[in-house]
Amino acid sequence: MERPDLLLTDIGQIATLAGHSGCPKTGEEMMELGVIEDGAIAIRDGRVIAVGPSRDVLSEVEDPDGTPTLSFPGMLAIPGFVDSHTHLVFAGSREHDFAMKLEGKTYMEILKAGGGILNTLRATRAASRRGLCTNAFSTTERMLACGTTTAEAKSGYGLDTENEMKILQAIADLRNMVPMTIPATFLGAHAVPPEYTGRPDDYVDLLVNEMIPRVGESGLAEFCDVFCEDGVFDIDQSRAVLRAGRAAGMELKIHADEIVSLGGAELAAEMGAVSADHLLMASDDGLEAMRRAGTVATLLPATAFSLDTEYADARKMIDMGLPVALATDFNPNCCNESMFFTLALACYKMKMHPREALSAATINGAHALARGHEVGSIEPGKRADIVILECPNPEYISYRFGVNLVHTVVLNGTVVHTRLGP
What we know:
By secondary structure, the chain is of the alpha/beta class.
């Protein structure tokens, strides 16, 4: 075997999540983490070349004594977290909306009062491309320190061609500033902008005939998303947006059945979406259609926490064989950058087992971004995106909530973050 660039050795446990690069984990598979005791990982050119018990790996690789080596006794190695749903790039904040929420106002009431997405729209339209990138860079650094090595980023706070393109360009700039993998999603169909109040069909025409073709030609977005919700975009409007996105060469995602059961899950299955996200109110028929279509159910428990609503029925989805992913939904209304908090909520509020939650936050999150072949597990050939945690086993991750357990982050084979001290 070739000589590695870096060896990680004497690791108390490695949760490899191996064996599911071709399709996401479902059902009982979500409990299977591929745990290796006293393990080692060999890395070369940013890729894993060997993983297994330390004795075996060190006997296989060339010149282990001459290779830079880091030792992590008593710790846990996991794949880097894959945060498959974020609204990473925006300007401003919504602490005033937060106060209204505490007074009992609903999400839609705040939106109608000019808050919510429209509040952020005004600040984002006024911001420069550079300013948006700078703000997002700070957030990305915090995510990375919490073990996230892949994070999707949506547009959706410009809501016109110029400003949506500005957001997508800022996401492209961000990729050149940080080594994290950041797939981009076009979400021009996030809300109806003020200038189209009472004319949602006219705005959909703008999306379908101008904005989406422009985004497709630019190559700045890999996915096209739509907020399919009562009072935002209905099923027919959402279908038109998704069809245009697919025609422009983008894969599809959908914000589905978050507030009411509108049929978004059924639409996701019909359109062959990679993922349908939220799903708090999804019907059983819609979930079954998603299962047959192979659409990943991306659940966002921190959103339910921030809205003080019921949580998605993760237990039902897993038991019926639907692939489930977890993501932060970082946005101005849910300022959650931590996958640790997300996993804890999934266990405490959605009754997921800690091992299921870890599967959902790594390999299944990778499949929700069509990247299961590249990230989400620790196995030969994949990117060496690895997080070392100061904890003894996978169950401890969710048990010890409210704490960042990260000791070291290896991204694409390079140590990019480590805790000070031994």
